[in-house]
From TrEMBL:
The keyword Oxidoreductase appears for this protein: yes
Protein name stated in the entry: NADP-dependent oxidoreductase domain-containing protein
NADP-dependent oxidoreductase domain span: 23-310
Organism: Nyssa sinensis
Coiled-coil segments: none
Any one Gene Ontology cellular component term annotated for this protein: cytoplasm
CDD domains in the record: AKR_AKR13D1 (cd19145)
GO molecular function: oxidoreductase activity
InterPro entries membership: Aldo-Keto_reductase, NAD(P)_OxRdtase_dom_sf, NADP_OxRdtase_dom
Length: 342
């Protein structure tokens, strides 16, 4: 089996496995929650295979995914992993609200530590940026949590280039999490170069296009009614018919290279640079093993260019998120002068 190497994520000292494991789908958003015992076995198998960078959030469930990870890391497993979780999306009165105020940041961190049953979070991300207040205000509290030993490293998710710069000026940002895959490449223009200039690691979520680059349009037929992918623009019938051409071409190239389409798509992300760590999610051990196999797929510059031509911006129909998730786009925060603490 392919060996999973190690990589430095960012320039603050965090070292993680060269590929991580996104844990969201085990508990939320992708259909009903999977049995704890199966998911704990999967997490243990991942760790034994060298995939030690585990990604969760308080909003997955909400809360149940962190509890699951807490159970999985009992019995000395905690020492073997780099654990990332996130805060910032609060569900109250049936509404979703993005929050980054200091009191909320602290309360969210304490609650995550408790659910995970740990003393310190390795990498703590702001899941979405609270555009009602300056990022400096949120970062000030995160910096205190680092000083108190409750978190080791700070990350941002779905932040704009200017927000990343401003946050990094308050306290070094270790990693920025963003959606990056063959068919989602808008981050390449500004956000990725900004991270590289500042020495910030890049964590790619949905590197397999939420499963589309693994199994193509047929995946939509198998989605349960609770699966939020059913409602994403790219998976609507009028767009899917067009987008299936991308999968077919990736699939043909994979067949010629003797790998699976998911391995080819994941290898493309790995070839973006040694500062990029993809975190494909799965709930099946055989898929996890296949994802690890992507690390041994080598691509030439010509193959990279060819792959990119299959999924150029005009070849992909539909936005990443629909109107239901408008708060989930890259966002900018107001200047510090416009916000006053109570």
């Amino acid at each position: 089996m392919t060996k999973v190497g190690r990589m430095k994520l960012g320039s603050q000292g965090l070292e993680v496995s060269a590929q991580g494991l996104g844990c969201m789908g085990m508990s939320a958003f992708y259909g009903p929650p999977k049995p704890d015992s199966d998911m704990i076995a999967l997490i243990h198998h991942a760790i034994d295979s060298g995939v030690t960078f585990l990604d969760t959030s308080d909003m997955y469930g909400p809360f149940t995914n962190e509890i699951l990870l807490g159970k999985a890391l009992k019995g000395g497993m905690r020492e073997s992993v780099e654990l990332a979780t996130k805060f910032g999306v609060n569900f109250a009165d049936g509404k979703r609200e993005v929050r980054g105020d200091p009191a909320y940041v602290r309360a969210a961190c304490e609650a995550s530590l408790k659910r995970l049953d740990i003393d310190c979070i390795d990498l703590y991300y702001q899941h979405r940026i609270d555009t009602r207040l300056p990022i400096e205000v949120t970062m000030g509290e995160l910096k205190k949590l680092v000083e108190e030993g409750k978190i080791k490293y700070i990350g941002l998710s779905e932040a704009s280039a200017s927000t990343i710069r401003r946050a990094h000026a308050v306290h070094p940002i270790t990693a920025v999490q963003l959606e990056w895959s063959l068919w989602t490449r808008d981050v390449e223009e500004e956000i990725v170069p900004t991270c590289r200039e500042l020495g910030i690691g890049i964590v790619s979520y949905s590197p397999l296009g939420r499963g589309f680059l693994s199994s193509g349009p047929k995946m939509v037929d198998n989605l349960s009614k609770e699966d939020f992918r059913k409602y994403l623009p790219r998976f609507q019938p009028e767009n899917l018919e067009h987008n299936k051409n991308i999968f077919e071409r990736v699939n043909e190239m994979a067949a010629r290279k003797g790998c699976s389409p998911s391995q080819l798509a994941l290898a493309w992300v790995h070839h973006q640079g040694n500062d990029v760590c993809p975190i494909p999610g799965t709930t099946k051990i055989e898929n996890l093993n296949q994802n690890i196999g992507a690390l041994s797929v080598k691509l030439t510059p010509e193959e990279m260019t060819k792959l990119e031509s299959f999924a150029s911006a005009d070849a992909v129909k539909g936005d990443r998120y629909g109107s239901m998730l408008t708060t989930f786009q890259y966002s900018d925060t107001p200047p510090l002068s416009s916000w006053k603490a109570e």
